[in-house]
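Course assignment 3, question 2. Fill in each field.
Student: A.L.
Task: Predict the tertiary structure for the chain below.
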Amino acid sequence: MRTSPAVNFGLPVIVSTLLALLAGAIGAAFLWLTFDYLNALSESDYATNGAFVIVQTVAAMASFVFLTIIQFFAGIAATSGRDAFDGKKVPLSLAWKRARGRRRALAGFTVAMLGGFIGSACVFFAPSIVLSLMVNEIAGVLAILVGGALWGVLSAFFLVKFAFVGPLITYERLSVKDAVKRSWKLTNQGFWRILGELALGYLLSSQVVQIIVTPFIMLVPIIMGILIIATGFGTAAFESVVLAMFSLFFIALSIAVAGLMYGYWSALVVVVFFDQKMRLEGFDLVMLREAEDEIRARTRNEGESVTKNQWLAIPQEAT
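Answer field:
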C-alpha cells in the first residue's frame, strides 16, 4: 500500500464513486415509484419496524456480497504487489496497462461471483418469506436465522477458496477456469490460516471505518445547531439546505472510507497470495533468483563488476 497507493486506493475510490452514483440513481427511482406505499407504511409503527429490520438485513448482506469486488481490485494490484517486494513504485496507469487482455476475464469473474452470491442468498432466504406468509412470523424469523447462518458460512468458505482467482488471472495470466482450479488448490493447505488472516483484515478495516465515521456522526448535529443559532435562520428551508450540505459531505466521506477499506483488503489478499506461493512453491527463492539476474544485468550494462556489498544486498531487495 505504501509503494503503490494510487493502485491500492485510487482504483477503489473511482469504482466506489461509480457504484455510489449507481446506487443513488436506483434508490431515487425506487423512492419515486414506491413513495405512496412507503408513506402509508410509515403510519404503522409495526410496519415501520419491520421495514427497518428488512433494510438492515439487506444492507448487511450487501456489504458482505460486495466483498466479491475485491477480486477485481486484487487482480489489478497483483503485479504492483510483486514489485512492492523490491521497493518499486507502480502508478495506476502502469498497473492497468499490465492487466491488458485480462481485464475482461477479471471483470467477468467478479460479476459472475457477485451473481452467484446474490442467487444463493435468494435461495437461502426464500423459505423465510414463505413461512412468514403461510405459517407465522416466528417461523419466518427462525428460518431467516438458520438460512442466514448457512449462507454466511458457505459465503465465507467460497470467498477463501476463490480469494486468489483475481491475482492469478492477471499475474499468472491464467484463464478463469484454470485460475479457479489453481486458487482452489492453493487454498487446500492452510485454509484456516488464510481464513483467519482475511477475517482479521476485514474486522480491522471495519473498525477503522467506525473510528473515522463515528466522530463525524456525533459532531454533525452539534455543528448544524451552531450554524442555525449563529446565522439566525431557523427556517425549515435553511435547515434543509444545511442538511443537504452535510448529506453530500457524508456521501463523499462514505466513498473515501469505502475506497480505504477495499484498498486495504485487496492489498491484504495480494500479500496472502504471495505468502501462500512462498509457503507451497518456494516463490521467495524465485524472487531471489530474479534479483540476482537483475544485479547481473545492471552491472553488465554499466560495465562494472559485482561488488560484495551488491551481492549482500540481494536478499534484502528480494524480501
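Instructor remarks: Residues 236-281 form the longest helix (46 residues). DSSP finds 13 helices and no strands in the chain.
Grade: pending
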